[in-house]
Amino acid sequence: MPAAPLRITADHLESFAIGAWILGTGGGGDPYFSLLEARKHWAEGKSVELIDPLSLADDDLIACVGQMGAPIVMQERLCDGPVIAATIAMMEKHLGRKFKAIMLWEVGGNNGFQAFLAGALLGLPVVDCDAMGRAFPQADMTTFAISDFSAAPWTMVDPRGNSVVFTEAIDWSWMERMTRRVCTVLGSVAATCKVPRLGHEVKSGTCLYTASKAMRIGRTVQAARKVHADPVAAVVEAENGLLLFQGKVTDVMRRTTEGWLRGTVQLDGLDANRGEGFRLDFQNEWSIGWQNDEVKVTVPDLICVLDTDSGEAIGTETIRYGQRVTVIALPAPAILMSPKGLKHVGPRAFGYDLDFKSIFPETLR
User: Fold this and answer.
1) Strands 6-7 and 49-51: what pairing?
2) Fewer Cβ in 10 A, N or C end of the chain?
3) Would you say 273 and 245 are in contact if contact means Cβ atoms under 8 Å apart?
4) In CATH terms, is domain 6-210 a member of 3.40.1610.10?
5) In the predicted model, what is the mean pLDDT of the chain?
């Protein structure tokens, strides 16, 4: 039986910001500025309900929103709630039909907030699900693409007010190529309303209950901090994760190209890992981790880099020399690890000549 709607409070948002940043696996954007905006809206009396995806009727029309671009650019060119809401209004005008609710494109980081901001402004509930179960850099790296759902239409608005409607795309690869090119022209950041989904597609082809999962992870971190316990260890234990490496950031190389943030981070081991090295590659999100030059962990397993003391997630755009960090892994949703899923989000989809082998034993997935 579907759960009753949950009225989202300011406390829920604080927990969500922590958990979504961890689930962002380095990407999705730092949620800080969207959290500030949400605090303002909630202080003015706005709010949203979080609804169970299984409560949707099969023909309910659901908007799917998120930002697109390079995370480092999002720190300087902000797409706020009204810009996200504008993409939904554009889509409704294009379709000639109103939406029943809004869902998250990806639960990770700042992008996880976009549905809540738009919902508060438009008076629409948010569905407790997303299309990734984490964050990924490309439109064809989603449960929608894995499920062979349609890729169009798609609306895009930049902070200046420029807008584009993509009416057709032969597949998700072409939608990614077209929207990425336009996003780059717009300055490598834009708000988007992805192709709308019907209720039966949401129930069958998304990662369910990920918004509430982010809140749960956030509460775990908050509870550990309150009693001066280890928040990283608390998350690992609560979410069936694995602690991979503790170290200090000794080198960061990153560049913004073609609408993505790409690069490599080098860690030198501390404590139990003293004398060892760990290297992380990223394309917006952490994609591959090598320990002592041997592959340790790969997508789609969730690779999360956390501040060793606070448990706060560290993004690919904010990581810097000298930080003390702990690398952990969390299990990926099952749909991402299916044979079809791995074609879209496995190591080879990121250009690596590697086959995916989960770091987790089957009993922990």
Assistant:
1) antiparallel
2) N
3) yes
4) yes
5) 95
